[in-house]
Amino acid sequence: MPTLPLTQLDERARPADLDNRTFTLTFGQPVPIKDLLLLLVRGTSLSVIPDPAIAGSFIGELKNVTVRQALGLILLPLGLDYALDGSIVRVFKREPETRIFDLNYIATERVASSTIGGDGGPRSAATVTSSTKTDVFDDVSKGVHTLLTEHASFNVDRKAGLLQVTDFPERLDRVSLYLDAVQDRVHRQVRIDARIIEVEPADGKAVGVDWSAVAAQMAGPGSPAPRAAARTIPAGLRVTDLTKLMSALEAQGKVTIVATPRLLTLNNEPSIVRTDTITFAVTPQIAEDSVVTLSLSPILKAPAPIESDMLARVADGETLVLSGFINDREIRERRNVGLAGGWFGRGTLVTRKRVELVILLTPGIVAGVVAQ
Question: Which domains can be identified in the chain, with CATH numbers?
Answer without folding.
Answer: 4-94 (3.55.50.30), 100-186 (no CATH), 189-365 (no CATH)
